Amino acid sequence: MNAVPQADARLGVGDRPGLLGVLMLSPALLYIVLLVAVPFFIAIALSMASATVGAPGVHGFVGFQNYVAAVHEPEFLMGLRNSVIVTVATVVLILIFATIESELLARDFRGKWLFQILIILPWAMPVSLAAVNWLWLLDSQFSPIDWLFRHLGLLGPGTIWGPQMHLYYYGQEWLGLASITLINVWRILPLATVIVLAGRVSIPADILEQAQVDGAGIFRTLFQISIPAMFPILVVATMFAALLVFGDMAIVAITTRGGPGYATQLLPFWAYEKGIEGGALSQGAAIALFMFPVLLAGAIWALRAAYRSQTR
Question: pTM for the whole thing?
Answer without folding.
Answer: 0.85
